[in-house]
């Protein structure tokens, strides 16, 4: 199948792309490189060759808000008699802090970019999509409560609001176009780790906002110590609990969701993608230290604004519907994250 992947040079994008290529799909990859590196695409190609994968990909440098740019990709693929059959839509801005500072930028990039994409898909009769949403849209339900897909949606920052808004637009499209669109919305929990080759991984611009990239920076002596945000949360060790999932398990869920969609005339499939297992900040730090035999100095600071003590998925629906099980443990995630940073101390070549 020929699949378009937006944001394909990013962290989730490169890992999803290699999984799709391995499964025999040809890809059209779009990325604007405002938050990713051209070197990631070179690495993807290198990895594809090492793994002796025959499927091919093309890269298109551009922005989803540019309708002409999008139309050309769809029309060229139509002319080639091998039209794009499905879209995996990952592109979007994702920093919570920036979204609070620049809300209009987030609404423009994320929501307007998505609307443009959906319009062009409709025009070219490509109506199969997997959209990358986030657990951040859920309202906090209390400690030890697993979040299922019917949990209340109440995002607390503009980034989360744009994700919830795009979900609503897709749900409206589904209602208005019965028997036409096949839509899957994947609500990611906390993807971490890297491809086991160490050739692709997460390389955030500037100071990392998220825990795992912050840990690997400390482990490789690029930052002196990890700041742990809060020691008095109502959890087992006082640090916040999350549901970390290996990025390759997440990548696989995209392809399985797409295959599942193709079995139906029309479908709206909303799934949590997590492991269902809670891990505290200290658990993650200690596992990383012991499995990789390295040091992670840390100190405690005040809680980060907008954080919750416990965010863990009820992932039963995804396991059942996709016949999918996250295979990698927290140890695997730590081993692969360490392998990535050891092989690429400064991330991708800049
Ligand atoms: C964060 C975002 C969420 C986004 C997700 C993926 C917030 C409030 N939430 O989720 O919207 O979808 O990233 O991009 O920003 N921590 C530390 N020290 C650090 C970094 C993090 O102690 O240097 C703690 C955090 O307080 C949190 C846990 O580690 O308790 C996980 O943090 P993070 O990796 O940022 O993920 P989320 O907070 O789940």
Mind sketching the topology for me?
Blueprint: E1 2-6, H1 11-22, E2 26-31, H2 38-50, E3 57-61, H3 67-79, E4 86-89, H4 96-101, H5 103-123, E5 128-134, H6 158-176, E6 182-188, E7 190-192, H7 211-219, E8 226-229, E9 241-242, E10 244-246, H8 247-262, E11 267-273, E12 279-280, H9 281-292, E13 298-301, E14 310-311, H10 316-322, H11 330-343
Parallel strand pairs: 1-2, 1-4, 2-3, 4-5, 5-6, 6-11, 7-10, 8-13, 9-14
Antiparallel strand pairs: 9-12
Helix pairs in contact: 1-2, 1-8, 3-5, 5-6, 7-9, 9-11
Description:
The protein has 350 residues and is an alpha/beta fold. The protein has a single domain (2-343), classed as NAD(P)-binding Rossmann-like Domain (Rossmann fold, 3-Layer(aba) Sandwich), CATH 3.40.50.720. The chain contains eleven helices and 14 strands. It has helices at 11-22, 38-50, 67-79, 96-101, 103-123, 158-176, 211-219, 247-262, 281-292, 316-322, 330-343; strands at residues 2-6, 26-31, 57-61, 86-89, 128-134, 182-188, 190-192, 226-229, 241-242, 244-246, 267-273, 279-280, 298-301, 310-311. A seven-stranded parallel β-sheet has the order 3-2-1-4-5-6-11, sandwiched between helices. Strands 12-9-14 form a three-stranded mixed β-sheet. Strands 7-10 form a two-stranded parallel ribbon. The protein is globular. The mean pLDDT is 96. Uridine-diphosphate-N-acetylglucosamine binds at residues 94, 96, 134, 136, 159-160, 190, 209-211, 214, 227-229, 240, 242, 281, 304, 306-307, 311.
